[in-house]
Specification:
Structural class: alpha+beta
Radius of gyration: 19 Å
Oligomer: single chain
Number of helices: 8
Order of helices and strands: EHEEHEHHEEEHEHEEEHEEH
Distance between the termini: 18 Å
Number of strands: 13
Length: 293
Amino acid sequence: MSRIALATYDPGAEPTKDSDLAVLAQALREAGAGADIRCWDDPDADWGAYDLVVIRSTWDYSWRAEEFAAWVERAGRVTRLANPPAVVRWNTDKRYLGELAAAGVPTVPTRYIAPGESAELPADHEYVIKPTSGAGARFAARYTPAEHETAAGQLTRMHTEGFTAMVQPYLRGIDVTGERALQFFGGSLLHASRKGAVLSSGTPYDADKVAHPGLEPWQPTEAELDVAEKALSAVPGGAPGLLYARVDLVDGEDGQPLVMELELVEPNLFLFLHPTSLPRVTRAILRAATSRD
């Protein structure tokens, strides 16, 4: 019997935000595996006792990036970790977008401002500022050129806390066609979803945001699939080493899809929206647990 751990975060006294977690664990057990839900920072967890540790919803990691990176390395030394430690390490810093762009993948144009660097902000279009390490639109905000003073305050706060900032144009197509999430599992497309715009004009960067507004099933276009596959092919080490991946796409000014994010660490699977995908996810995890590659 394979032993599998689904790594998550500690929600404390609140209910978990991962509505798929218990359903997935039960499906694995019904398929004959031993499946435990474990918090990634549980000091009593014996990760080496598992055939596979699947990073599922470690959704507090960006607040504790160094601690999380150390856990990934430790767990990866004693068991099979999905996704692999090298992939997780690469994907936790959104400067990977620059690498994707250099590899010819259509991506949202992105400029980086590290602590100590001058902050020249766009003067002729709306833009977004967010950190290179973050999740759930944390420390992300949308600005017009008239709001430079407020934007500069955000940069100062982020730099004081050690964050490198990303500056991207606000692509107006998001307000019309939304953001599409193409979910891959076990090496092939699992399903796709679409959500509305997360960032509203005037919402403070440190305010809570709804991460997936208006989420609905989506049928990806050929152009979207093409861009997603190009992004996965550009991952260091290649897509075959990935158990799961989510490619988030938005439309550029020309209406063509661009990669906004490539989620290889702990993407929400949205199984509650796509319940028929559960058997495929279960089978792929079981295969990974018994693989000897």
